[in-house]
Sequence to fold (210 residues):
Amino acid sequence: MRSITRLAALLLAATALPLVTAAPASAQAATPADAAAATKFVEDLSNRVFGLLKDKSVSQNALRGKFRGMMREAFALDEIGNKLIRRYRSQITPAQYGAYQTALPEFAINAYSDRLSDYGDADVQPVRTLPRGTKGDVDVYSRIVRPGSQPFDAVWTVRRVGGNFKIVNLTVAGINLSLTQEADFSAYIAKNGFDALVAFMKSANAKAAT
Fold:
């Protein structure tokens, strides 16, 4: 379950507006205009996050609460959650799926929030933004530099969901975190069962609430 906590670092990846690189438009692929809008979405989100980090009057509890609201707004949590259990989706009951859907958002958001304060000293270097694939996705690239640490590259995959941009995946240092987390979930389910995964998530959520 450690890999999902690493996603918190990547929220701090886009404090500057990356360069927009034009790509041939098609009926389904994202257009250069979509790419520009996607970079603005990521930039605005980053500015809000760093505004909170720099506000010393905000308590840790208040910070986490506001951050959780941002995550619910910015991440396509339902879509991400479905991808993480796609190997088992046809094998579980509607009740099991409902329990998972209920537990996942808070589980993921708590993981992001727990690491937020560790990255207040990050310096971000914009790289580029590229439309990709045929689903209207846009990859936003940034390089993250922190004192005393090796720099790493982050790629945000952004897509319009319900008319608004949402983050649907993150790749850091060449590692696709969605695929990594999917492998972690699959291994846990294979060993313990799907109900055990949901129970683990609920337990983690309860501990975070205390």
Summary: DSSP finds eight helices and five strands in the chain. The beta strands are 123-132, 137-145, 152-161, 164-172, 175-176. The two ends are 20 Å apart (CA to CA). Helices lie at 2-5, 7-10, 32-54, 60-74, 77-84, 94-115, 177-192, 194-209.
